[in-house]
């Protein structure tokens, strides 16, 4: 299974990608997660990427493409992958088309997930992550038992720098301007399957699996 999830920040791409990766036995490739790890590790790539991420802007294509291609070439992607957060621009999409063609690979589908803007802002602004073990929470949809404390390990919960409301709204604008045009790019290739992301996590997963079975 080679699947791409496309949709605005906060729509649930990461949440669904993790569930789908488990269901299909393939790795979840999230460029956002890889970049955040680079930032935590204090690498040169992480230092450069952080400047863009904290502003809600996209990291330049050349940095992303080299990073993504080396991830794509890891052994675990042989049976397939669920890619989330990449590509984000038309040049990235065209480069991804070429990467796949050079390897003789083809996507099975591009699933686009949509939800109303205010719901997206609420989901992103409500997200919290454990600093110690990385367990995810949401103050509106999946609150911890004790505010600010991880149920799993007792570690402190924190908010991603780019999940503050002003930055969340900026990321939504960047998505409309730079990433939404990719839907037409993949529609022209016949890959697009649309799913309503405003449903519960379980209902969105069922909808994705239904459109993939078509
Ligand atoms: P990235 O990490 O990719 O962020 P994003 O696309 O903005 O996506 P999010 O993680 O915010 O949302 P999501 O759709 O994955 O939703 P999630 O499942 O987490 O990118 C971050 C930054 O890195 C970018 O701004 C950019 O700077 C840089 N970057 C990354 N890739 C790049 C690229 N290719 N090119 C250039 N720059 C790049 O869910 C969100 C919240 O909602 C969670 O709390 C979750 O629990 C909750 N939730 C999910 N589904 C539901 C549901 N159905 N009902 C209720 N709550 C839900």
Can you tag this structure with a few keywords?
single chain, 214 residues, 5-stranded parallel β-sheet, binds BIS(adenosine)-5'-pentaphosphate, alpha/beta, 3-stranded antiparallel β-sheet, 48% helix, globular, Rossmann fold
Give an overview in words.
With 214 residues, this protein is an alpha/beta fold. It has helices at 13-24, 31-41, 44-53, 61-72, 90-102, 117-126, 165-179, 181-187, 201-213; strands at residues 2-6, 28-30, 81-84, 109-114, 127-130, 136-138, 157-158, 192-196. It has one domain (2-26, 79-213): 3-Layer(aba) Sandwich (Rossmann fold), CATH 3.40.50.300. It is 48% helix and 15% strand. The strands form two sheets. It has a five-stranded parallel β-sheet with strand order 2-3-1-4-8, sandwiched between helices. Strands 6-5-7 form a three-stranded antiparallel β-sheet. β5 (127-130) and β6 form a beta hairpin. α6 packs across α7 (165-179). The longest helix has 15 residues, at 165-179. The protein is globular. The structure holds BIS(adenosine)-5'-pentaphosphate (AP5). The site of BIS(adenosine)-5'-pentaphosphate has 35 residues, from α1, α2, α3, α6 and β6.
In a few lines, what is going on in this structure?
This protein is α/β, with parallel strands linked by helices. It has helices at residues 13-24, 31-41, 44-53, 61-72, 90-102, 117-126, 165-179, 181-187, 201-213; strands at residues 2-6, 28-30, 81-84, 109-114, 127-130, 136-138, 157-158, 192-196.
CATH topology: Rossmann fold
CATH architecture: 3-Layer(aba) Sandwich
Order of SSEs = EHEHHHEHEHEEEHHEH
- What would the average pLDDT be, to the nearest integer? 96
**Rg for CA atoms:** 17 Å
Q: What oligomeric state is this?
A: single chain
Q: What is the CA-CA span between the terminal residues?
A: 14 Å
Top CATH class = Alpha Beta
Task: Return the domain count.
Answer: 1
**Global morphology:** globular
CATH homologous superfamily title: P-loop containing nucleotide triphosphate hydrolases
Count of helical stretches: 9
Q: Which small-molecule ligands are present, each listed once? A: BIS(adenosine)-5'-pentaphosphate
Relative strand content: 5-15%
Secondary structural class? alpha/beta
Strands side by side in the biggest sheet: 2-3-1-4-8
Helix content: 40-55%
Mind describing the biggest β-sheet? 5 strands, parallel
Low-confidence stretches: none
The overall strand count is 8
